[in-house]
User: What shape does this take?
Amino acid sequence: MQLFHYAMKIVRKDLSGDKLQWIWNLIFMTYMGFAASTAFNVDWANPERSAKVLDFLMVIVAPMLGFIFNRRSFHYINNDTYTRMLVFYRTIPVPAAAIFASRMILAVTAFAINSVIFFTIVYLLAPQLRSSVELTSYVAVAFSWIGIGLFLTGFYVYWENMVNGKAYLRNYTILTVIVVASCFALSLAGYSTSQFIVDAAMKWHLLSPVMWGLLILGLVFLALMCHFTYRRQQSRDLS
Assistant: This one.
């Protein structure tokens, strides 16, 4: 209970520290939703190549839903703000485990807020999507991508706490290339992650096993990465 108390104090501090972050976050998510609406706006009974285009877009966008875009996020590469934050927390009586608990809470909170903005805008701006996919099926599609985003966020949590800003950018680029290359390989083989997710959602709606499988996998992997990072971070030299 005390650990949760400390974690929530950190979460409240992060969410209230930068008043402009909510404006920047809304603008960015609105822009991303507007950009993605074109790829979503197809007849999902016969999407042709559009689903494969959406694969490339969503594997990049999905993990972005787990971030609140504030000044610390934007300046991380140049100023190594997460390392400086860890140095600060080591100087005050806050359990180290609370830092990682707060990071997971922040990720889930960010996914909840950003996903509502992003997927609502996409749905409103995509009439063909609305006519071919029921609302409950679309919600299942959204949760499926959130699960993928949660899974990828696990890697980012580790890098935030274990490497500097430049190494984070390098690792992020490598992971993005691997994920995009995987989508390309699946596309060449005639498969589409987006089509697979939508087909399952249209068949089972909110009971989609794909949705529940991805959500559970994403949450479990994120929790494991937070725990693993917590154990590794204790021996990291922050000087």
User: Anything to note?
Assistant: The chain is about 80% helix and 0% strand.
